[in-house]
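Worked problem 6 (solution included).
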Amino acid sequence: MSKFQAQIAARDGGRFGAYVAQPQQPNGHAMVLLQEIFGVTGTIRKVADHYAEAGYLVLAPDLFWRLEPEIELSHSREDIQRAMSLLERFDSDRGLDDIQATADHIRGQPGFGGKVIVAGLCMGGRLSYLACTRPGFDAGLAFYGVGIEENLDRAADLACPLMLHFGRQDDYVPPAAQARIAAALASQPRATLHFYEGAGHGFYTRGKPEDMALAHQRSLAFLEQQT
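Solution. The predicted structure is:
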C-alpha cells in the first residue's frame, strides 16, 4: 500500500504523490512539508504528523517522483551516496513548480479558505526559502537549508514571512555560510533567524531534545502570528 494518500497534477504533466497528515482538530490552515534528500521518509512523515497535531493539514509531496518515485532511503553509506546522486539530478525549478502545485491542490479542496505554509528540512529548507521568494505562500519555515547561501540574490524577493533555523555545528551549512545568510537577510524584515549552539545538521529530528523542542515551539509561535 502506498504511503501517499494524495495524487497531485504536475504543471508540466503527470501526477505525483503526497503523504497526508490530517489534523484531528483542524485550525483551518495547511502546510506543504518538503523532504530531505532521503525522500518522504518515516522521519518526514513524523514531522508532518507533529504539525497535524497542532491543527495543520500537512501534505509532503514526493519531490523525487521524476527520478525514483516513492523512494525512501536510510542514512547508511550506500543510501547517502544514492541520495547525493538523486540530488545532483534533481531539477530545482521543476521541484518548485511541484511545490506550488501542491499548494494549489490544497487550495482547491472543498471548503478550504485558510493560509498555506511551506516548510522544509535540509534540501527542503533551501526549497522552502526559494518558494518564499515567489508568490503563493503565506509563511515559510526553513530548517538548516543546504545551499541557501548560493541563492542570496533572491533574498530581496521574499514574498512572505520566513523563519530559518540553523545549528552552529552544521557541517553542511558551516559557520561561513551561516554568516553570509545572516548578513544578506539582516535588512529583510520578513526574515527571522535562529541559531542553536552545539547543534549539528538534522538537529530538528535527531538532535538534543531541548533543541528540537525549542525549534518546534518557536516555529509554532511564528506560524500562529502569521495565520
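Discussion: The chain has a mean pLDDT of 96.
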